[in-house]
Amino acid sequence: MDVILYNPLSRNGKSIEVVYQLKEKLEKKGRLVQIENLLTIKDVKTFLTSHFQCERFIILGGDGTLNRLVNEIRDIDIKQDIYLLKAGTGNDFLRSINPKNKNDIVDIKKYLKNLPIIKFNDHEKLFLNGVGLGLDGYVCHELNISRNKKNKRNYFKNTFRAFKKYQPKKSKIILDEQHEIKIEKTWLVSVLNSKYLGGGMKFAPKADRLGEYLYVVIIKDAPKWLISLIFPLIYLGWHQNIKKYVEIHQVKKAEIIFEEPSFLQIDGEDYNEILQFSCEK
After folding, report:
1. Running DSSP on this structure, what letter comes out for residue 39?
2. Do residues 254 and 279 make contact, with C-beta atoms less than 8 angstroms apart?
3. CB neighbours of 91 closer than 8 A, spacing ≥ 6?
4. pLDDT single digits (tens) 229-270
5. In three state form, how does the secondary structure of 210-222 look?
6. What is the CA radius of gyration of the chain?
7. CA geometry: angle at 62 spanning 59 and 67, to 5°?
8. What is the pTM of this model?
9. 48 three-class SS
């Protein structure tokens, strides 16, 4: 039996159409299919561990859905196979895996193990793709509160709106508990477990989610007009060549401290009034 776990808010509320298309496709192959709305499951951990007849869980959602799920099932061993079908707006997780057929279900179970941890404000969470304090957190905030649909057009629109409003902060960054960096004008500090963040932006071109390292990406000191030119280059990974304003460090641990509160994003979910966070893999 296959159990489809879907987020009704994915695909701007149209994920249910994809659910029934997938159900029909699987049933034609002779599979028994059960459909479950993730938002109505009160205890996801109990649901997954007690579903003995199920052979495969198929998740229909984007990065946000997957992030919430891995934190719900943290520290438990799911016996069944876990598959993902693209249904969100960001899909940086699936983009980094680069499956042969992105429109089919993809086996993702091995990618959900040994995930990095972020700690902030007495919270501790796993993350899949990346986290960031500063401008990227503010862009996520603007996008999340926008009344418009989440797509590339509105991502760019909200990005440039954030450029106009955001003011860089002083920061201190500690890498692997040894190397300390102090920056007067910090636009953003992102910590990546994957190459991609922000709907296809290639923040950390050398990152490997199955590897043992995280990548700290720092954008600093640049005048505001230049930031609007650097950001489009990130889609191609070319920002790493602008070494005067961009630093990338390979680490196991990182601690980021801002002098003033800013916006934090974790796999696209934003938090406000954050001064510091730490990450470890």
Report:
1. G
2. yes
3. 62, 63, 199
4. 998 899 899 999 999 999 999 999 999 999 999 999 999 999
5. CCCCEEEEEEECC
6. 19
7. 80
8. 0.91
9. helix
